[in-house]
Amino acid sequence: MSVLTIRQRQVLSLAAHGYTNDQIGRQLGVAGATINRHLVEVYATLGARDRANAVALAIYSGDISLAELARIAHASQQREAAA
Predict the structure, then answer these.
(1) Are 21 and 32 within 8 A, CB to CB?
(2) pLDDT tens by residue, 21-31
(3) Is residue 58 assigned to a domain?
(4) Is residue 43 part of a domain?
(5) Domain containing residue 44: CATH number
(6) How many distinct structural domains can be found in the chain?
(7) Distance of alpha carbon 42 from alpha carbon 77, whole angstroms
(8) 1 in a domain, yes or no?
(9) CB atoms within 10 A of CB 34
(10) Distances (CA, A) of 78 to 8, 17, 56, 71, 83
(11) Which residues contact residue 62 at a Cβ distance below 8 angstroms, ignoring those fewer than 6 apart?
(12) DSSP state of 50
């Protein structure tokens, strides 16, 4: 059972790919400060110290999958190749 909301999982997946809060915000159409708030809630929910720890805990708990991270990486590579 997922402990994170859909939006929190989405934000954390993008953070796992290395996007900054502002970059995530632009992709999702919200302010970077909103992304920061989502991440603070994720850290508290998972008991994480930082982004890397939150990603590891989310993978361990099943909140995000390696397949999802691979999909994001692939989409990012395609966008970069098209640019």
Answers:
(1) yes
(2) 999 999 999 99
(3) yes
(4) yes
(5) 1.10.10.10
(6) 1
(7) 26
(8) no
(9) 16
(10) 24, 14, 25, 11, 9
(11) 2
(12) S
For tokens 């720890």, what's the residue?
A: 53
Please give the Cα distance from 2 to 19 (Å, whole number).
23
Q: Residue 36: give the domain boundaries.
A: 6-82
List, for residues 42-82, the tens digit of each pLDDT value: 999 999 999 999 999 999 999 998 888 888 788 878 878 88
Q: At CA 64, angle to CA 41 and CA 16, rounded to 5?
A: 70
Question: Which ranges in the chain belong to alpha helices (H)?
Answer: 6-16, 21-28, 32-46, 51-61, 66-82
Q: Which two tokens stand for residue 60?
A: 């361990």
Residue 20 covered by a domain: yes
